[in-house]
Design brief:
single chain; 133 residues; 5-stranded mixed beta sheet; 29% strand
Length: 133
């Protein structure tokens, strides 16, 4: 059974994460989903070697508000690898989130669709819980 089905609703690929029962928190009007990135699939993007070790882990928060005026955040525990062949570090890609971005690709598409409607920047920002600028 895939416990990460909520990630599909938020526009992310559930195969990029550990399949475990996800507990969510509710804090100050925000739903916070905590997930962990898989560390068993790792091929160095620089030299294509599969010899890598976990260097460290970091937690990032991604805006995933896909519905009207309900703030949702995915807290991802990302893993960083060090390649034993070339010595470089890398973090595996998470499908559905662009590199260095704090918003899912699906939310970006929904914002672009709302620009076609007669909505102000402030209305769109409030709707998805993002900054107006």
């Amino acid at each position: 059974m895939d416990f990460n089905i909520l990630l599909l609703r938020l526009g992310m690929n559930s195969e990029d994460f550990v399949n475990k029962l996800n507990v969510f928190d509710y804090d100050d009007g925000t739903f916070i989903y905590s997930v962990e990135q898989r560390q068993d699939v790792h091929v160095c993007p620089h030299c294509m070697s599969d010899k890598a070790r976990v260097k460290d882990r970091d937690t990032v928060q991604i805006n995933a508000s896909d519905s009207d005026y309900r703030r949702e955040v995915v807290r991802i525990r990302k893993v960083r690898f060090r390649c034993m062949s070339c010595g470089r570090t890398y973090t595996p890609e998470i499908r559905g989130i662009d590199r260095y971005c704090k918003t899912t690709s699906m939310v970006k598409r929904m914002v672009c669709e709302d620009f076609k409607k007669n909505m102000t920047f402030s209305d769109i920002a409030k709707r998805y819980g993002i900054d107006r600028s």
